[in-house]
Design brief:
Blueprint: H1 2-17, H2 21-95, H3 102-115, E1 119-125, E2 129-130, E3 134-145, H4 147-158, E4 164-173, E5 180-191
Antiparallel strand pairs: 1-3, 2-3, 3-5, 4-5
Helix pairs in contact: 3-4
């Protein structure tokens, strides 16, 4: 019985035997190709999809890493800028007089003018001008002297260890034309803390 079945199977293959060898080879190649395509579609495509998803996730994480690196670099720069601002503020605050030192500072300004050869006709403290974190402490001054004496006075004030400015100068030659009548303001500053008290001048500072 088995022999009969085998012979029957061979009989069914007889129609293929009449084709040339190259056609048989092409047919076999087509079958193999179809099998490979089917394998790829069934088994390889899901793997490829997973690889694509993985590559996409890797690229997304790479972009996030780059953004974080940029943020870290900017943060370090901002940190250095902040530290510099804090240091500059500390230096500036050290140059501002304490409230208790203002009278002494103004006396030093008056002495600087007299030492430069100027004659003071007026030296009148005025009301403080309040700002957000500091107050201006102005003094109205009237002086008489030469241009050279005035320049010497301004230089001495600029070299003081505490901040003091000479502002709003009005210079008029006297009747003889040899000297000047000078009016203006000498202004110093004090820091205003949250409690409204001066906190400046706690360190030693100097003007460059």
């Amino acid at each position: 019985m088995k022999l009969d079945l085998d012979l029957a199977a061979l009989d069914r293959l007889k129609p293929l035997l009449i084709y040339p060898l190259w056609q048989k080879a092409m047919a076999l190649s087509s079958v193999v190709l179809l099998l490979l395509l089917g394998y790829g579609f069934i088994f390889w495509q899901p793997v490829q999809d997973q690889l694509d998803e993985l590559n996409s996730a890797i690229e997304e994480q790479r972009q996030i890493l780059q953004k974080n690196q940029v943020i870290a670099e900017k943060l370090e720069l901002k940190k250095k800028e902040y530290q510099k601002l804090v240091k500059d503020l500390q230096v500036t605050l050290a140059m501002l007089p304490k409230k208790s030192q203002i009278d002494e500072l103004l006396a030093s300004v008056s002495w600087a003018g007299k030492d430069a050869g100027l004659d003071f006709s007026k030296f009148e403290p005025k009301e403080e001008r309040m700002h957000e974190i500091y107050a201006e402490v102005p003094v109205s001054v009237g002086m008489h002297g030469t241009f050279r004496q005035l320049m010497s006075f301004l230089k001495r004030v600029g070299e003081m260890p505490r901040i003091a400015d000479v502002k709003h100068l009005i210079i008029v030659p006297d009747e003889q034309g040899s000297s000047l009548n000078i009016e203006g303001e000498v202004v110093t500053y004090r820091f205003i803390s949250a409690g409204g008290q001066s906190e400046a001048g706690t360190g030693q500072g100097g003007r460059e």
